[in-house]
């Protein structure tokens, strides 16, 4: 199955929901999701002071592309801070995070499987 077809719509029509890990400071708007492939296009938001350390280093079985729209966050493993206007493309299995942010961050993410 694939992500559903949508024509343009205001993303503000989609409510913020708490991400897996249950930290209320880390929320997402799922714009489109493939329910079978467990991949999605989303907007991710870390509120100021959010820290994903309890979720540890992340590795996925899918590709993930991330563009930082606002703010910044720090990859605690790398000790490096990434800011608005920066982009990442992560192949399956690439470790990243955990993350923390003082000012908050909003990202646009596309996740998919490649054949």
Automatic annotation (TrEMBL):
InterPro entries to which the protein is assigned, alphabetical: ChrR-like_cupin_dom, RmlC-like_jellyroll, RmlC_Cupin_sf
ChrR-like cupin domain boundaries: 11-109
Pfam families according to UniProt: Cupin_7
Highest taxon above the source species: Bacteria
Leader sequence segment: none
Protein's recorded name: Cupin domain-containing protein
Organism (species): Rhodococcus jostii
